[in-house]
Fold each of these.
Amino acid sequence: MEVYLDNNSTTPMDPEVKKIYEETTEIFGNANVIYKQGIQTRAALNEAYDKMYDGLNASDDDDIIFTSSTTEGNNAVIKTFLDSFLKGSGKNHIITTVAEHASIKSPLAYCKTFGMEVTYLNTNENGLVSIDDLRTAMTEKTALVTILFASNETGAIQPIKQMARAARDMNIPFHTDAAQAIGKVKVDLQDLGVDYFTFSGHKFHGPKGVGGLYIKAKAPYTPLIHGSKNVMGGKRAGSVYNNGVFAMAQAVKIANSDENLEYMNTEVLRLRNKLEDAILKIKDTKSYVPREHRLNNIVVASFRGIEGEAMLWDMNENGLYISTGSSCSSEDLEASAVVEALGEKVEIANATVMFALSKFTTEEQIDYLIEKLGIIVPRIREISMTYAKQEAFSQFIEEH
Amino acid sequence: MARNDLVSGNVWEQYSKKVQERMNNPVAMGEFTQEDADAKGARLIVADFGAESCGDAVRLFWLVDESTDTILDSKFKSFGCGTAIASSDAMAELCVGKTVDQAIKITNTEVEAFLRDDDGTPAVPPQKMHCSVMAYDVILEAAAQYKGCSRSDIENTDIVCECARKTKQDIIDAIRDHDLKTIEDLISTTKAGSYCKSCIRPGGHEPKDIYLVDILADELAKISEEKLVAAANTSASETPQFDKMTIVQRIKAIDAVIDEYIRPMLIMDGGDMEIIDIKENTPYYDIYIRYLGACGSCASGSTGTLYAIESTLKAKVDENIRVLPV
């Protein structure tokens, strides 16, 4: 059996979305030309926009820009404020968290090279940021607050609506990297009250290479990609990814529908809880972030004595595909800082793995995984010195 | 750079079949107890290396025949990734039948070679080499326990790159033998720093006591100083060859010849010359001069006089000299 459980990293396309993706390659006309192919493409594009605006409840005064990815949208938002700083706005400060994705951390590091300052709010042992910490950090020189909607590594969901309001009270623009939101949590942009909201199609069973950037009416914005002003209202040049956009719009409609979220919050939640309960029955395991603060599809669990990459190897041998934050599994040999920030010791970060379900996960697959865990965990613990019966007579522990 | 850097995350594809087999079925995995030792009339050694906080730790068990110092049997347990498990398994197997002193000589390089499917292809990707270093380190710990001494007594503390097993002297020798000037040349020539990269400069995966960039900088500084001292010494005791002189020595040598053979002629006619610059354009030495006084407006400055200056310097200083008036 093949069981893919890394759905916070990427997802397979929904068959309905895939059908649109494949069929609409026929709508190849440039969106800007005057004749028939242009008319066709514009009709499809308008339909896609209707799905997006209705689906996410954006106001017609707001912008939803089609991008290549959440990463691009994150860069565009942050660099808008780098641009205004460099042009003398006097606002040199950006607030974010320690738990952000690289596509937020890297642009912020870039901003620092120009002399901007960045405050990284800490997360508590539940992976959550405190609104009081945010209030304390905001000053009259703060240009932007950017806080992730939910963590891809821990599943912790931040109190975005309240934090957006706290920022609004001080007239500070608020952005959320919402890559993990759509398809798991109801998104209502007007209710959420953020100024910027970024996402990628491939996280909710849409295609790769296409994403969205929501910009509230009147929020500051400098294009990241300059070019023809006839595209995306001049806010993002580059030919529109026709079939990618049409497919993603359908994926949004499906993912943010009450029907889908009902399924995620009942059946998928049930399967997730079944898996988590089975894991916790195994000795010396622990799961993180209380369920009420966590996305409905993820279990983050540590298995004492079992290093992450070794666990992934055995899983892979059995057709099970999960992820880990362990140092040995990353190219640069660094353990995930986000998992360490959950307050656990470093050795736990190295023994922690993540299971992320989707609406396509079946009970049969979860039962298979639970069965295999019953074989894999003992096998690796048999090799592991953590469970050796004979103690060492001498030892050498390097300083790290 | 370029093509080879564009696709990353390439780890398991580079594991040899032997590594994969040992990850799935480690042959030397297990423990020995005092009872096992008594049954064989051997001494039980149990040594640890590493820590779960680093992501790699191993416990090595030996049954040693004290009359011959021979390791009768060897087992291991390991917390770590697949490379760590496979390396520890191979290492434990390699210990069997060796004396303790022979076991100390087993290096992680030998363990990695033992895990290769064919001689030319590494068993693991470069960044995973450091997981195999632990296999070597735990042998030292076990040996120290057996001998009743401390690790540092056995350890080769001069190793600066553990993954490639290069000592500081190896690096210094390579710098001199191959005339290495940059850190990139050093890494590609010696292979030190080409695996986990921690030893190149501060800020890598593990802190080190000494870094390659420092060894290179120190050695280049020494070499440069030696050259200056040599130039000064030969200059004091004899006239060195023109090509071995420093710039200052060359200008002095040329000026001396001009003073003796050329300047008197020019001054007699109301002129003079000065040296502006000297540039080495292999195989020539180009001397840039400026005519002063009457020489400045004399036609001979580009013909007869110039020829005289150049041929005099060619004869008296070095045959590769060219003179160029500015």
Note: The CA atoms of residues 158 and 169 of chain B lie 8 Å apart.
Amino acid sequence: MGPFSARQEETGEANRHSADDPLHRRQRLMVGAAGLLACLFFILDLQLPLGVANAVLYSAVVFLSAASQYRWLPIVTAITCSLLTILAAPFSPRVPGLPAWFEWGNHLFSLFGIWTPVMFIYQRRRTELLLKEVNERLEQGVEARTADLAASRLALERSEEQLHSLTGRILTAQEEERRRIAQDLHDDVNQRLALLMLDLQTVDRQIGSAPVEAQKGIRNALKGLEELSDDVRFMAYRFHPSILDDLGLKAALQRLLDDFSSRTGVKALFVHQPLDHQLDKTTSTAVYRVIQESLSNIARHAKATRVEVEVTVEDEGLAVVVRDDGRGFDQLAIDRAEGGLGLLNMRERLLAVQGSCEVESNPGRGTTVSMYVPLARVAT
Amino acid sequence: MTLPRVLLADDHTLVLEGFRRLLDDQCELVGTVGDGRALLEAIPELKPDIVILDISMPVLNGIDAARVLKVKFPQVKVVFITMHADPAYVRAAFEAGASAYLLKRCVGEELGQAIRAVRSGNFYVTPLVTKDVVESMLRGIDGGAPSGPELTTRQREVLQLLAEGHTVKDIAGTLKISPRTVEFHKGQIMEQLNLHTTVELVKYALAQGLTSQT
């Protein structure tokens, strides 16, 4: 009975830590049950010959102890059960006529039955540990991957931002360049042409007595110069409408719409709320270009009979709506097709001045382009 | 008649040179300047009768310079000589207080006539642009003039809501625009339709079948 009492003592020790804890109470109960069972089987062993079925019964106790929280319990149980088996061997009743080796074999089988579960349990524990380790390593891997992903997303966002700013700068540079070319054409080439014409007109007046051919030649030259001057003026306007800088957005848009109407025959309505906001060159050029792009889209695709352009002031910003009654388009299709490029260009232009743009269209029900550009209020 | 004192403003030295030759026998050229601000600064000292200027000029453009000039020195006549044949420019020039509008290419023939007209208190517009100006006047859509009885989709929305008795604030909320913009639309509609009271506005909307209420 020695080993049994020793186990009782250990159980008591384990319980001293937290007697009130329900979990520990269960553990204590389990150890007690294991001890009791072992004790019961020991007595059974003493009563029955050949240690019948003790191997199986003791292994059940070992299995039971494996469910405990204490990792040492299966081994201790196995040792105890082994000792009990060995102790019971000489005292258990003998079956007459059976050779001694048979009984001893039986007891050895009991020992084998006790230790096999222990091996099994420890094998399982090792696998569990390994699995846990693999799991942890996997988790670390996932964490590292997540961090990597977050970093690359950040990098992507940054490069997207850079792309926007680059596009904005390219558009501004392009606009600047066109403005310069237009100015050169208008202010330099054309002024010189005008002067040439002046000079020729003077000559024309002075040679009143010259042969008719000479007069005719000069008149022809003058006519040619005039045409050239008109062409240059138109080229300059195509590059950059100086009216935008000279007379402002409203006059420039009015001119744009007049030209649009007379070119396409599409009726244009223009509503423009007076501004008490500062409209800088870059912003007004962006708004002008986006409206121009919208109109050219309408001219090319919409088959519209009427276009409305509304410029109003909303929340410290300029709200512009370009609406047509044309055949519209399938928005999903356009995002994929080449037509998306014009819209992208419009978006980028507005983005460069912190603006935004939305296009709404349905087949057969016209198209509405809405844009918004924040403005700086004039300091008064 | 004594020769008029003329101040010339243009940022192109070549043009200044060309004009100088032209003006020599018709007026007394008191000076030349290169931009609008310099022009305004030179007037008190040079005391010109007539200022001849271009529209596209650095620092301060011709239109803005003319506007200030006419406020400060109303007796000085303003003559524009530019490259721009666009009616919008002509309109802007006369709104700023111009007395004459010429194109550079016709200056040789018309400047004398223009100066005579201006001195006797008349206006002069070069025949080269009168066709466009008259056409745009007839169209009535140039320079912010009301564009006739046709209303935009938004204007019709505003008109309908007004006719149905909604307040400006309600309409602003419904259409998600600011009350100021609603007021602006209302004013524009009344101007375009030549209506003067809200009652007339409602009557018009009813006549047009714009309201959903009976």
Note: Residues 2-142 of chain A form one domain.
